[in-house]
Amino acid sequence: MSPSTHPTRPDLFFDSSALFAGVVSAVGAARALLLLAEAGAIRITVSEQVIVETERALARKALQALSVFRETLRAANIRIVRDPSPAEVTAWREAIAHEADLPILVAAIEARTDFLVTLNRRHFVDDPEVRRRSSLRIGAPGEALVWTRARLYIDQLQLRAYTDDELEPMLADDQIDEATAATIRRLLASGEL
Fold this sequence. Notes:
Layout: E1 11-14, H1 16-24, H2 29-38, E2 43-47, H3 48-61, H4 66-75, E3 79-81, H5 86-91, H6 102-110, E4 115-117, H7 121-125, H8 128-134, E5 137-139, H9 141-156, H10 164-171, H11 178-190
Parallel strand pairs: 1-2, 1-4, 2-3, 4-5
């Protein structure tokens, strides 16, 4: 395989809302993504600020989950990146309207992750300019899980090598849900892998 087609593990940047959700809930998309990271299928990246924010939220809202949080960081082999410098943050100041979220967005950009996972719809997901200016995929854990499943199918089954006519029967398989099949079609057609 050439370097441009060599599959790499999807790398998702979790903000504190997504990380909190994955730690305190035994079910849900954020938890499923943490389990995929634990299995080594994907990589989850966070910044130092995300760790601090998540610990504070857990201490306020779910103190008993702090030990689970620390074990999750270890078990899922979460990559922790440094917070962006003030100069890096300033360079991206036009990327998002809510200034307090700017260090998180810049950390995800600078870490060169594939997807920013957040439950903060108002500041990240519902503002299409954030996605456009940052060139990041941004969505809730459920959206990230659909995208991740599509990426894993594409890589595992080497779907890039198939023609559209060969691909359609594979995507009609009962084991691939329609949302994942639609995402696979979109990713392959757009070349955004």
